[in-house]
Amino acid sequence: MADETPAPIPILPNDAGPDGHILHSLTLFGEMLRRVGLEIGSGNMLDLVRATEYVPMGRRGEFYQAARSILVHRKQDLTIFDEAFQIFWRKPSDRATTMDLRSLGEQKRFRKPQISTGRDDESSNEKLLELEPDDDSVQNVDLNKTYSAVEVLRQKDFSEFTSLEITEARLMMAGLSWDLGNHRTRRMASGTSGPLDLRRTMRQNLKYYGEFLDLARRSPKKKPRPLVLICDVSGSMERYTRMLLQFIHTISGGLHQLEAFLFATRLTRITRNLRYRSIDQSIDEVSKAVPDWAGGTRIGESIKTFNYDWMRRVLQGEAVVLIISDGWDRGDPDLLARETSRLQRSCHRLIWLNPLLGSPAYQPLTQGMKAALPFVDDFLPVHNLNSLESLSKHLNDLGNERMVMKTYRTPSLEEPVPIPEPEDRPIDRLNLPKFQHPMWGKSPRH
After folding, report:
1. Do 251 and 387 belong to one domain?
2. For residue 381, which of 22, 244, 313, 358 is within the disulfide window of CB 3.0 to 4.6 Å?
């Protein structure tokens, strides 16, 4: 009887299931990539599983290229994916474990992380194995200090968003609350305090034979404060245009009254185009309605058109005006300053949102921004989801007090003279110029 040689025991892949099926390893690999900050969906993992039918996993280089092209969507994630792939799909002789992957999403791009060694059941505070350090300052890896995918998305600049991230950001923006408060109208309504409503008092007291026992009062009626959006869609704002349109469409569904305008070289009203439920259909209609999309920038002339044609129609009830622009203007700075000052005096609050303000090194040095900034109540950034959340909190905390508006002064070519503070220049009411009637030359009698 011939000697039967026992069959060799197959070596299971890293983190494979008890049956040795590779699908379990692919699932763990995708879960690990999500934990280090990569945007990996179930559809991407299914594509990778289908790719294994054409790219055998025995060829490490081909499988690496296939997985990299399917699972990586952003350039800044290439380094993280390369390190994660090297650690997860390691040789069995390597004692580094996948449970010791730490903070691949937070490390600097020019440094290599440290991976702890030992078996899977060893503690994480043991000796660290250094993988090809570039300098003396090597970072330790700690998974407890990593940011989640949502936190990474909240801090990411709008100009770097992918189409999938824009969809996720729209869902996050829908959860923000926008409450600009109420304003008093001229109409009166029934209330507990205020002047006496004689007509309603007489009607209610007929059951008492005309004796005024129940007094009805009336107080000013209150309505939600409207919001006006004036957004720049010129060529310099092209990186942020689609995301800002997503923001305008989302906020339009949560407010009682909103008016939206777009401008580049001319002003276009898009309020009716935002009534579609589908954001894609709204953006398509808006792109057809705006003839100067991604063109030049004339902020002063656009605001002047708004002041002359639309101000009395939409700035009712102490409206709040948001101007979204980077401040790059090819028009007259004096015109921009004059029209911005007029717009500020006509609304409850004028807020300028600049996507470039999110950069720590940004300074408002452009002519357009320098001309408009003295007449702006609030100068805020709008470059990521965290800035939108801060904007919603700022709008929700707006008070009912109207701001003391600044007056426009024609800029001089000489060095500007500093204006003293209000407490340093008391008003002498006795020396105020009296009103002179053009016919009689003195103040008319009242």
Report:
1. yes
2. 358
Short-list 119, 149, 121, CA closest to 32: 149
DSSP assignment of 360-417: TT----SHHHHHHGGG-SEEEE-SSHHHHHHHHHHHHT--SSPP-PPPP-PPPSSPPP
Q: For the chain, first and last CA: distance in Å?
A: 133
Structure tokens of 156? 């990411």
33: in domain: yes
Written in H, E and C, the secondary structure of 61-73 is HHHHHHHHHHHCC
Q: Are residues 197 and 233 in the same domain?
A: no
Is 3 a domain residue?
no
Residue 439 falls inside a structural domain: no
Here the tokens at position 12 are 């299971």
User: Of 113, 146, 179, at which residue does a domain stop?
Assistant: 146
Structure confidence at residue 231 (pLDDT): 96
Check pLDDT > 70 for residue 174: yes
pLDDT exceeding 90 applies to what percent of the chain? 25
Same domain? 297 vs 360 = yes
Is residue 152 helix, strand or coil?
A: helix
* pLDDT for residue 345: 92
CA atoms within 13 A on the CB side of 136: 0
What is the Cα–Cα distance from 362 to 359, expressed in whole angstroms?
A: 5
What is the residue whose two structure tokens read 């002519």?
Answer: 367
Q: Which domain holds residue 209?
A: 187-222
pLDDT in tens, 138-170: 344 444 444 456 778 888 899 888 878 888 888
- Mind listing the pLDDT tens digit for each residue in 365-392? 999 999 999 999 999 999 999 999 999 9
How many structural domains compose the chain? 3
